[in-house]
Amino acid sequence: MNEFYRSNASLPRTARSGSLQERLSEWKERRLDHVVAACHNSDDPFKEDFGEYHRIISEAVAKILVTDDIKNETESLLSTVGILFPTAKGGLREATGLIGAEIEKILSD
């Protein structure tokens, strides 16, 4: 991620407080799943990629939420997103940039 995405990322209000598990759950429901629904059945390739990556991350977060080590698993997810970011293009680049910055914000609270 870079400063552009860090400065433009914002979390839903309900994802800004509570335990890490609560913040991730709210982020999944109120941001990731909302984007997936908004991009579903789009004819725009950018939106298709953007929505699909949000779906993938939403599924990963669902798995993280039932683990015993939520913090380490979330940090691992952030690392994976960070690896994809430099070479991603189009909707995938925007998605990795925003998602990575949002995960950073969730972990920093």
Describe the model.
By secondary structure, this protein is mainly α. It has one domain (21-108). Helix content is 73%, strand content 0%. The chain has five helices and no strands. The chain has helices at 3-8, 20-39, 45-64, 70-84, 90-108. The two termini are 18 Å apart. The mean pLDDT is 95.
Question: Which helices and strands appear, and what pairs or packs with what?
Answer:
Elements lengths: L2 H6 L11 H20 L5 H20 L5 H15 L5 H19 L1
Short synopsis of the structure:
By secondary structure, this protein is mainly alpha-helical. The chain has helices at residues 3-8, 20-39, 45-64, 70-84, 90-108. α3 (45-64) packs parallel to α5 (90-108).
Q: Helical content, roughly? A: over 70%
Total separate domains: 1
Structural class: mainly alpha
- Main sheet attributes: strand count, strand direction, barrel closure: none
The average pLDDT is 95
Q: Find the count of extended strands (DSSP E, 2+ residues).
A: 0
Subunit organisation of the chains? single chain
What is the H/E order?
HHHHH
